[in-house]
Every structure is written in C-alpha cells, then in structure tokens.
Design brief:
The complex is a heterodimer.
Chain A: H1 3-15, H2 22-33, H3 38-48, H4 52-61, E1 73-78, H5 81-85, H6 88-99, E2 112-117, E3 129-131, E4 134-136, H7 141-154
Parallel strand pairs in A: 1-2
Antiparallel strand pairs in A: 1-3, 3-4
Helix pairs in contact in A: 1-2, 1-3, 2-3, 3-4, 6-7
Chain B: E1 5-10, E2 13-18, H1 23-29, E3 53-56, E4 63-64, E5 75-77, H2 81-96, H3 112-119, E6 138-139, E7 145-148, H4 157-165, E8 172-174, E9 181-183, H5 200-204, E10 210-212, H6 216-224, E11 229-234, H7 255-265, E12 269-272, H8 273-296, E13 306-307, H9 312-321, H10 335-351, E14 358-364, H11 368-372, E15 388-391, H12 392-401, H13 423-426, H14 433-447, E16 467-473, E17 488-495, H15 497-509, E18 516-520, H16 538-554, H17 564-574, H18 580-586
Parallel strand pairs in B: 1-5, 11-12, 11-14, 13-18, 14-15, 17-18
Antiparallel strand pairs in B: 1-2, 3-4, 3-5, 6-7, 7-10, 8-9, 16-17
The chains are: A alpha+beta, B alpha/beta.
The structure holds iron/sulfur cluster (SF4) (3 copies) and FE2/S2 (inorganic) cluster (2 copies).
Amino acid sequence: MSNIETLVKDLVEKHGKSRNSLMPVLQGIVKEERFLSEESMIMVAKELDLSAAEVYGTASFYTFLDTEPRGKNIVRICKTISCHMKGKDEIIEALESSMKIKVGETSHDKKFTLLTANCLGWCHKGPVMLVNDVVFPEITPQKAIEVIQDYAKNSK
Amino acid sequence: MSEYLVNLKVNNIAVSVKEGTTILDASKKLNFNIPTLCNHPDLSVAGNCRVCVVEVKGARLLAASCATPVSEGMEVFTNSEKVRTARKHVIELLLSEHNADCTKCFKNGHCELQDLASEYRVGDHVFIDLVKSKDKILDISSPSISKDDSKCIRCQRCVRTCEELQSVSALAVVKKGDHQRISTFMNKPLDEVVCTNCGQCINRCPTGSLTERTYLDEVWNAINDPSKHVVVQTAPAVRIGLGEDLGYEPGERVTGKMVAALRHIGFDSVLDTDFTADLTIMEEGTELLTRLKRALVDGEKVALPMMTSCSPGWIKFQEHMFPDLLDNLSTCKSPQQMFGALVKTYYAKKKGIDPKNMVSVSIMPCTAKKFECGRPEMRDSGYQDVDYVLTTRELAMMVKQAGIDFMKLDDEKYDSIMGNSTGAAVIFGATGGVMEAALRTAYEIVTGREVPFTNLKIMPVRGFEGIKEAKVMIKDVKPEWAFLEGAELSVAIAHGLHNANELMKAVRAGTASYHFIEVMGCPGGCLGGGGQPIPTSPEIRQKRATAIYAEDEGLPLRKSHENPEVAQIYKDFLGEPLGHKSHDLLHTHYKERKRY
Ligand code: SF4
Ligand code: SF4
Ligand code: SF4
Ligand code: FES
Ligand code: FES
C-alpha cells in the first residue's frame, strides 16, 4: 500500500465510513500532506462510497483544503479590508522579494507556499499573517521576513 | 405526509391543502403561476434561485414559495408590486452574470431564463455587467453532451439530477462565491469521467448550459449530397414525443406525420428501429432460453440473471460501476446498432446500394446513443454502422427548418424492408416494455400458447414504480422445452439509473434471485430519454406511456415473432437467432471502465 493509501485507510478507520467523516478525513490528509492530490481524493471517494466529483466539490469549497501541491509551510496573508488598510500589501511585497516567489507559488525547495486568505478574525490586530496554524498579528514587513527565516532554519 | 388540511389564502382566495404542501403548489392549485428556475418536479427542493419569491402577510422578508410549506391562516400574495420588483431584480442579477447571446444559443426559444427575461421585459441592465467576455466556456469532449459554463445560472438542477435520479454524481458544485462552478472531478472533460451520457441533466437544465451535441449540419449536408443515399431509422419513443415540440400536447401519437415529414426533409429511405426491436426480442429471447438451458440442463455456470442491453447509458453505467456484472448483460446490441449493422449489409444488398455511399442516421429519444454509435465495436458492417444520431428535439428543429406545417401532414407509412414492426417493438419505449415483449414471445415459443394475460397486456411489468417484479409460471411446455416444465420465471425491471443501482447492489449481494432483468437508463424508459422534448415531469411521462400502449393496441401484430420482415430476414440472410451471421452483426461485448 502506498503511504497515501495507508493514511486514508487509517483516517477512515478512525472517523468511520459515513458521509459525515468526509471533512475530518480530508482535514487529516491535508495535515499530513499539505494538500489533497487526485489520488488521495479518489481513495477517499472509494472508502466512503462517494463519487470523486462530490469529494472534489467539498474540497474545493474550503480555502484551507488545497487541491494543488503545496510547500511544507503554508504562509497566508489576510487580504480582507481591515488588513488591507493596515498595509497587507507591504507585507506581501516584502515576503515576495525575500522568498523569491509570488503569491500562489511554492518555493523551489518546496519549503514554502505563499497565499492570501480572507478575514481571519483578527481585524483588530491587523495586518495578520498565518503560518500553518500559527497566527502572527500586527506583523511588519521586517518581522514577517524574520518569522519565515526562523521557519526555514527549523524545517529540514 | 398526513392528511391534515391547512387553510390559507392566496391572493385573497381561500384554499385548503394537505399539510406540508409548498406555497408554490398551493398557488398552482388556484392557477396562479409562479416562475421557478431551480425547482423541478422530479427533484428535491434547493431554494437557491429566489425567482419564486412571494409575499407572506406579516413576514418581514419575501419567501421562496418552492421551499416554504403552507401554514394555517397564512395569507400569500404571489403578484404584489414588491414581489414583481424582487423577481425582476433576481432575473436581472442572473443576467448580469450570464453570457446572454440568445441569438447564437442552441436553447434560443426553448429557454426558461430567456422566457422569464421576456416575461418581465428586462430592459437595460440595472446591475453592473459581470460577464467579462462573451465567449462560450465549452466542454465538447463528449460526443453526446455540450456544456457551456458561460450559460450556467448555478441552479444545480443538473447536480441533483445526476445524483438523485441517476446515482452517478458526475457533476458537483465546485469552489465558492464568484468562482463557483458546476464541474466534474478535478474539472476533467466529461468524456474522462463517469458520465453515462444519459442526458437527464440536459432535460432539466433551464438554460443553454447543458445541451446535446448537435449533428444537424452533418445530416443536412448528407441529405444535400446527391451521391449519398441517406437512410433514417426512428426509435419507438420518438413517435410519441415529437409532437410536443411541434405544437401538440404531451401524449399525441404522430407516427404517420413523422414518416411524412422525414420524406419531405429528403431522407432517401425512411425505416423503423422498431424492426430491429422485434429482432432484438428474437435474439435476446433465444439468448435467455439458451442461458437457462445451459444452467438447468447442462449444469453449466452461466451468468444469470441475464440483463437487457438496449440502453447505452445503462451499459456505460454498468461498465463504470458494476464491471463484475458485465457477463450478465445480454450480448445483443441495442436496436439502433443492430439496425445500423443490417442497413449497410442486408438492406444495401437487397436494394442494390453501395454501402460506401450510404449515410445512416437515427432519430433517438436518447443522447447516449450519440456516444454509442461511435464505440469502436460498432463497425461490424465494415463501415461505421450508424453515422449520426439526432435527438427527438433535433428532428423537430429539422422539421421547422424544412418549412413543414407538421400538423397538416397526411399520415404516411414506412418504407419496406426494415420498416415493418409490431406492437411489441413500440412498447420498447416504456419501462417494462422490453420485458413485456420478450415474455410475449418467449412464453409462446416454449408453450405454443399466448402469455396468460388479457389482451397480451402484462400489467405487472407496466407502470412507473422504481423497481417492478413479476413471476410467470411455465406449464404444459412443448417437448423440446421439457426442462422448463413447472418452472417459475422470475423477472425484475428498473428504470432510471438510481433504481438500477439499487437493483444491482441486490444482485451483487446475492439477495435477488431473478432470471431476467430489464434496465432502462432513463426515468420512465426511453419515453423519458435525455433526447426527448423539454420539459419533463411525472405527468408528462405518464401521458407518453399511455400513448405508447395505445399505439401497441392499435397495431395488427403485437408479437415480435409474428413480424413478417423478421421471418424474412432470418430466411434470406441471418439463418437463425444466435446463428453465425447474428453473432457477427448483432452481438457485441463490453469493457470495464474506471469508476473514479
Ligand atoms: S441560455 Fe437562454 S438566456 Fe442564455 S443565451 Fe441561451 S437562450 Fe439566451
Ligand atoms: S448525462 Fe447523465 S450521467 Fe452525465 S452528467 Fe448528465 S445526468 Fe449525469
Ligand atoms: S448547468 Fe444548467 S442545470 Fe446545471 S446548474 Fe447550470 S443552469 Fe442549472
Ligand atoms: S481583515 Fe484581516 S483578519 Fe479580518
Ligand atoms: S424556484 Fe424557488 S428558489 Fe428557485
């Protein structure tokens, strides 16, 4: 069995075969793999007896369930109005030039993907950056670069 | 649902309806029409388009009438100023995102969105036009179905159709917000996914987003080419559907007028798929009896229950979903393809036409047949057996393009040979019809007597119940069929792929013990096919079924084995059912396809 097959089987075993398990199973895969590959969605469809289109439909609804390959760390900058007014553009520019990738792209070493996100509920402390699950409120361009450099050092 | 009655007023008129009735249906009872787009009588309630809003006294917001049940004392206004303005805005908002190039649209004149725009006299757009480009966003990968996202209003009727009626779910809602689309797994082209080409989504799409792939130009070109002999065949269900697109109410039989129209249009030979429907009964009936003999007498392991194979949407479904049951399918080609293989061999020879110069066209209530005619197995005549398939709807367009006043035509008869048929062939168009036709013939072959049902009407296999069952006791058989003496033949019938799916699960699990199963891919059978006139509803399909059974009763011959042209083709050409020639021309095989 491939890794992904084992992962899906384990997750389905844990959450059960009902349709309600679809979200937790997809989240479980994203946690391990950072994104949902075609193969993994087909596996889920088979295990939960759903059509592949239904699985893809659900996955593509959620911003945080990616269906494209992603780097080990996913960096998201809030693009919604409050953060926009507090200078999210400068943060993005700083990150793009220091990481040498544009929004939507993944670094060559596959360590980082840079994305934007809709409001993260931290408007009072914008601009906000999210790295994987960790929130960095009131971020400045300088701080953002430092955080990314820390992640680069710590992730092999 | 309980029988408890609820009293309400619609536009100040009192009405009592059953508890649970929607405002939409209660209003309909009083003949107040409320427009709908996402709602459909065959589907679950979605309530997403809001075009059906009404005012309910005391409520702050307008209510979606298709999704709101009535309540005691309710006062509803279906046509107040507020309602009309809101509806107009809903339509305008839909159009602000819609590639409304009606004059170039296949649905021009048959479009629910266009009808509403016309009814509400939507003039200059009050909302910002969000359609960036007036380009089609086309998927024409499938030979049956054309999908244009720029025409989609995301009502999701297609998604519900594919899931609820067909258990296929090839289509889903993907992404969200302004990126929301109706799409396939990973946005793959339709011909790469599990779509069966049944066309049921087309029948319910209110816009030009989902339509059949049309081959009208190709057929006109063939007709206009003097070097071509263009042969046309018409499926059983076309004659009871076509009228709906040409001014008649549902349930009108227009067989003779249709034949006349086809001649006016310029087809060189006007023939009938019903002829090969009769032939199918001879081949498939013999196949069933042979399988039973091998199982019961020779003790061989044969695939039973045997399942019918006339419906190409059902065949593709089975290839994707139940590849382990492919051996159970009858090896008989569909009547369309039997016809195609014979027209370029037998017919060509009899009439002295070089098959090279023949173009074979079929008129079908079906979109899956457009896919079927291109299958690589369907070239047994040495040519592509059927060149083009048109839907009933496309034929209606041809009739209009040809300037024919259809209602005024005098009835005409099909050409001979391959134009004669029996009532048994006509009922192929309704769910249970193939079974009934097969029983009429098989029972008589085995016992020498007519089936023991009044006037040949085998009522247990008729009707729209999802899965029907019947048992026929076989007694006093002819000596050569002694092994069937006292046997009880057990049969089942499913229509619509949702019901087929349920039945197949039971067969796979071994909890169903039938000898013979009929499956039609579309709800109601071919009469509800994906190529039939739009709209469709349970009532409309009922009227079409009534017409089919009336056509059967009106014919002098009602058993396939009594068709003189069938006897003739066995004598002159095929030899015997399941013989060598039959094997080469009339039978086929299936292949496993990916479920995901
Ligand atoms: S889908 Fe209807 S409204 Fe849209 S362009 Fe076609 S005919 Fe016009
Ligand atoms: S043609 Fe049939 S199977 Fe294909 S998408 Fe439409 S409803 Fe589903
Ligand atoms: S394709 Fe047609 S039926 Fe499907 S959502 Fe779009 S408009 Fe509705
Ligand atoms: S706008 Fe950025 S967190 Fe709300
Ligand atoms: S028809 Fe009622 S909300 Fe669409």
